[in-house]
Design a protein that fits this description.
Layout lengths: L9 H10 L11 E3 L6 E3 L8 H11 L10 H10 L3 E2 L9 E8 L5 E8 L4 E6 L4 E6 L7 E6 L5
Length: about 150
Amino acid sequence: MPDSNIEVLRKETYLKMIENSPGTRLFNSLIVKLKDTGEVKDVFGDGDNSCAAFVSSVLFLNRLLDEPHATVARLRQVLTRLGWQKVEGDIIPGDVVFWEKIKVEDGSEHEHVGFALSADEAISTSYKERQVVKHAMIPNGRKVTEVFRPNILE
C-alpha cells in the first residue's frame, strides 16, 4: 500500500518494468484443458507464442488494460477498440510495436508484438531463446506494421 507521503510515478515505473524484463520466462506458458478431448497442453509452447501474453501482462500490471490477452490479433483488436493512439511518426520508449507475420521453421506464420526501447531497439519474447530479449527494432528485416502509444506516455 503506498504511503501517503509518496507518489508512484506511473510512466517511469512502466518504462523501468519494460527495461528490466529481458531474461524473464514468466510468460512462457498457458496451460489449458481441451473440453472435448480432455487433453492438457501449453498453448504458448513454452515460449513459442508468448509475445502477446508478455506485452498485455505488462500493460495490465500498469493498469493500461483490463486483462491480459493470449494472441497478437486479440491484443491489437482491444487496443484499437479502446482508442489507443496509433503512432504515425517517431517511436518512443514504451510504445507497443507490432511486426509483420513471418514463417517459422515449422511452416506456420506468426505475428509479433513487443515494446520500443528507442527508435532502434525493442524488447519482446524470442521463440528461439524462449525468453524476453532486447533486439533491433527491425529484427532480421521484419517490418513494423503498427505502433500504439499508451496514454501514460503522452
